[in-house]
Design goal:
It is a single chain. Helix 2 runs antiparallel to helix 3 (about 45-65), helix 3 packs across helix 6 and helix 6 packs antiparallel against helix 7 (about 150-160). The protein is mostly helical and about 190 residues long. The protein is built from ten helices and no strands. It has helices at about 5-25, 30-40, 45-65, 70-95, 100-120, 130-145, 150-160, 165, 170, 180-190. The chain has one domain. Mean pLDDT is about 80; it is low at about 165-190. The termini are far apart. About 75% of the residues lie in helices and about 0% in strands.
Amino acid sequence: MSFPIPFDLAIFLLGTFAAAFVTGLAGFAFGMVAAGIWLFALTPVQTTTLIVAYALLVQGYSTWRLRRTILPSRLWPFVLGSAIGIPAGIAVLELASAVHLRTAVGLLLIAFGLYNLLRPKMPNLKNVGQAGDAGIGFLNGVLGGSTGLGGILPTLWCVLRAGPATNTARYRNRPRSQPSPCRYWAWAGWA
């Protein structure tokens, strides 16, 4: 007796397996890989909800482990900006079609992959300050609210800010597989 798997469930399982495999190898990118596949069978709202739920589970553990190193004074601009940006992202999520979000996620995957592959020389924005952090937090809120892919922009921003987490032997000796949002939280905690 055979039990056929519905197409939506098969796509969900395939996306989950592929994203978990990539995350196991690289230590990050679960949401980007999963969204690229899930959006073929799931609605944007379902995809975003699943990405956020998985991120809370996985990154919650990393954040808990780093809780003593997080400095609220460094973190609050990102949190405030994100809190303002999330409603805008949810509005985008309600208005965008799966095709548009799938294309945007694909382009984001390509851009992020090229950035990590090429590692271009980026400008040092060390003296931008908390207003810049809040602006990136806002854009992260929009991206996170519309796709569930929060963490990419603050991670890149922290590299551009040349934060202490990217300039210490402690960071350079850390395995490359540490999840990106984990690096973001660590940077926000190291003065």
